[in-house]
Write a structure and sequence with these properties.
- The chain has helices at 19-34, 95-99, 103-106; strands at 40-45, 50-55, 64-68, 79-83, 88-92.
- By secondary structure, the chain is an alpha+beta fold.
- The protein is globular.
Amino acid sequence: MSVPPSGQPPVPEQIAFDRAELSIILSIYGRMVAAGEWRDYAMSFLREVAVFSIFRRAAETPIYRIEKRPRLRGAQGQYAVIGMDGRILKRGHDLKTVLRVFDAKLIRAV
């Protein structure tokens, strides 16, 4: 952690998902893999953002990105689901609520 100006909390060197957040994300990921929709994932932990990228095949660009940006915590919410085209599909303060954007993809007519 870097040394902040006096009176402020330490600034982390990188942003990461905690164990509870990863559990929620991997639960959705597992259901989508079982449904045959997703095949691979990657995680990036950077200075300003943590990204969970989802791929249909391993050799292509991600079809979705789940991002955590703590600096937006007080504004629009620190979690976002972003589509392949860069559109923000859902943003909010609660990860479970934001990930509900995938629920419609899990419901299929039999």
